[in-house]
Design goal:
alpha/beta; Rossmann fold; Helicase, Ruva Protein, domain 3; 2 domains; 7-stranded mixed β-sheet; two-stranded antiparallel sheet; 12 helices; 40% helix; 17% strand; elongated
Length: 291
């Protein structure tokens, strides 16, 4: 059975009080305190003794300590300078010496600087909700792809990311273009302190390198087409594409959609990722005839 270092809520409050520190709402600081939830994160990460872990927003180190015990090295990236000092003190108290604490904005972090090789590290993070989309985008578009991302994010956002037709959405397709997302567990808002307004999801995102997502031109064309299709999600895809891409001949678009087994009156949310990939592979050969 997985045995964890237990930090009670009172111990956490006393630790922060020692440093005269209050959780910062503007930084989205909601610290994971529930041991059952912590075990779920560790289990989802499937850690090995050789793993290099990039942790984002470690806070006082509840999760960091457990990651360090089961991996070779943890790079803990913390933006808040006051929290950096608290984290370092807590790591020292627990005699953890395989954690490198980095004071940095994760969105400005250069993977090359810290020798993060493609498929050579895992990301594990209790993410501030406001960082969810930017962090996922950064690490799915980087040439230095992680092996996987295990993230605590807002429950509703996790569900949206994992959506499938007929409820696909722009966020879901933006993630699924690069990776396979999977919800591992739902976590009550009471698992955190201060208690956030909503429950969370523990999600695992596994990048799937492929020719289409490594081709910059194809990637740009794909998202141009998809964003046009989802421009007004409740409207027909025919009208969205015509308006979003400034295409004048609807009859030609209609014929093209039907050729690819897409009904012109369908909504974008009913198309699968495979549908979109097939459309973009063929659409840009025909665009000159649609202008």
């Amino acid at each position: 059975m997985l045995k964890l270092e237990k930090m009670t809520l009172n111990e956490l409050k006393n630790l922060l009080k020692k440093y005269q520190y209050q959780p910062q709402k503007r930084l989205g600081q909601n610290f994971l305190i529930d041991q059952r939830a912590l075990k779920k994160v560790i289990k989802a990460a499937n850690l090995k003794a050789t793993d290099l872990i990039l942790e984002i927003g470690p806070g006082p180190g509840n999760l960091t300590i457990e990651l360090a015990k089961k991996s070779q090295m943890v790079l803990a990236v913390e933006k808040d300078s006051f929290m950096v000092e608290i984290l370092k003190g807590n790591l020292k108290k627990h005699q953890i010496n395989n954690v490198k604490v980095i004071q940095e904005d994760i969105l400005r972090l250069d993977p090359l600087k810290y020798k993060l090789k493609p498929q050579g590290y895992k990301i594990v993070a209790n993410l501030p909700f406001y960082l969810t989309a930017p962090v996922i985008r950064k690490f799915l578009e980087t040439p230095y792809l992680p092996k996987e991302l295990v993230l605590i994010i807002q429950k509703e956002v996790g569900q949206r990311i994992c959506s499938q037709p007929p409820r696909l959405n722009l966020l879901a397709i933006s993630v699924q273009f690069y990776a396979q997302p999977q919800i591992m567990a739902f976590l009550s808002k009471k698992s955190f302190w201060p208690i956030p307004e909503v429950d969370s999801a523990l999600i695992k995102i596994t990048p799937q390198p492929s020719p289409h997502n490594s081709d910059l031109v194809f990637r740009q064309q794909f998202f141009q087409l998809v964003k046009a299709g989802f421009q007004q999600p409740r409207k027909q895809i025919l009208n969205n594409l015509a308006k979003g891409l400034n295409l004048k001949n609807k009859e030609t678009i209609k014929t093209w959609l039907l050729k690819h087994q897409i009904r012109p009156e369908q909504r974008a949310e009913t198309l699968s990722l495979e549908d979109w990939l097939r459309l973009v592979k063929n659409f840009w050969q025909l665009k000159k005839n649609l202008l």
